[in-house]
Structure formats: C-alpha cells, structure tokens
Amino acid sequence: MSQIKFLKKSSIDIDKTDITITATDTTATNNGQSFVDYMRNRNNNSAWMTTGSNDAANTQLDIVTLDAVTLDRILIVGHNLKSFTIQYHNGSGFVDFSTVINETINTKTTNEFQFAKVSATQFRIIITGTQTVNDDKTIKQLIFTESIGQLEGYPEIKNPKYSLNKKQIKLLSGKSHIIRQRGFFSASLNVKNYNVTSDLDIIESLYFSSDGVLLWVNAGDSAQFSREHIGYRGEDIFLVKPVDEFTPEFYKSLYKSGIVLKMNLTEVTR
What we know:
Distance between the termini: 30 Å
Strand content: over 45%
CATH class of the largest domain: Mainly Beta
Radius of gyration: 21 Å
Mean pLDDT: 95
Largest sheet: 8 strands, antiparallel
CATH topology of the largest domain: Jelly Rolls
Low-confidence stretches: none
CATH architecture of the largest domain: Sandwich
Number of helices: 1
Structural class: mainly beta
Shape: globular
Helix content: under 10%
Number of domains: 2
C-alpha cells in the first residue's frame, strides 16, 4: 500500500503569470493553444485537447518560465497519452532527466515521474501516440513539483467531503431549485498516538507553509482501494492548507510518547 503523498504547489500553477505553454501539431485543425492554461488551473473539469490530430503529428508542448523553476517530479493527470517523451533545457539543448521519461506503451491516465532535482526555464513534451490510435490528445493537469514527503504511518482519513456548495431556493410550487458550484475538498487526518518522526516533520511543515500544498491520497496506487471514490482517485490532487492551529499535545501527557494528531485540511485557492 502507498501512503498519502504531500507535494509542493506546482511551479507552473495558474497563479504564476510568467509561464507560457506553446502547442505545435502538424496535422490538427486545432492544436488546443487556447486551452493550454487549463493544464495549470487545478480543475479536472477542463482540459487541453487537440482537434483533428493523429499519432503521426508528433504533437509538441513547450513550457517556458521567466525564472528558473526547481522540480524533482512531473505529474500528468487525466490524459490519454500512450507514447511521449519529456525533457528539460540545460542551457545548451534539451536533455533527459536523470530518470529518462520516454514512454512507449503507457496505459495509465495519471502518471508521476520522479528524477534528481533540476532547475530550468524550458521543458518540452513530445507526444507520439495516444492510447486509442489517432485519438486527439488531452491532458487535464500538468504539474511540476517537488516532494514534501510521503507518510509512513496510517492516519485515519476522517470526514472526507467533496462539497459542491449547494444552495437551495424554494419555489412557489413547493419544489426546490438547487444551485451548485465547482466546490472544494476537505478531510481530517487523525491519529491518537503519532510517533513517526519523519511524518511529524512533514506535518509540521504543512502547518507553517505559506503556500498551499498538494494532497494526493491515492499516491499513484489505485489497487489499495476497494473502489476509487472521489477524493481517492489517481486524478484527485488537491491544493490544501490546515484550517486549525498546530497543537502538538503529547499522548496522555507522556513526553516519551507521540502526539495526538487532529489536522483539518481544506482546499484553497493558493
């Protein structure tokens, strides 16, 4: 089983104004250039997609940042890519990461690629095939990030909620009109006696981070769940912050014990 992962906010997040993504496709009637920023908006209800492309097109995405960004992993979320490569520019040309990203028979719709940390201003994705031959290419999220850590312990995930911010308007007929929005995710992580030092270091960093952090409950291991409910799917990666204060209370006031963990997380805008 793969425990919860925490990642830094994407370095190409939608609130970064100095990011440009350029789509190139030799056969598409629409290369999806108008939709490229949908890959950065943390919303799985929108996506970048081509129209009229095929596997021979060698569709290319060039990501350019004004200032160098540092990352040790890339996540591609909600996509249909079978074969593709990802490289970064080292100042002289495009080169492979320490762990080469060169997929040829990919069947996953969410992928995480890990490698030694790099800092760069240019990245390139070349797509040479889709999981259904000659389909249009689509990506819901493209995340450039660094690991904060993966928990070793197993906190209870309490009160997971995907709220749609529903509002009920009562009509004269007595029936109701329900208005709903995109909504947000929230959950609590609880442990009565938490004494895993590396995990507690992660938890402390979450409380004192000025930016939101990415919560990935699935952690790339869908097989650990009997069913992938919303919030537990591979594509469910939420930018969250703790809404409560950090209260490192020792279990039963024993200084050699762990702490009582009750951390309430909610999805945030930044």
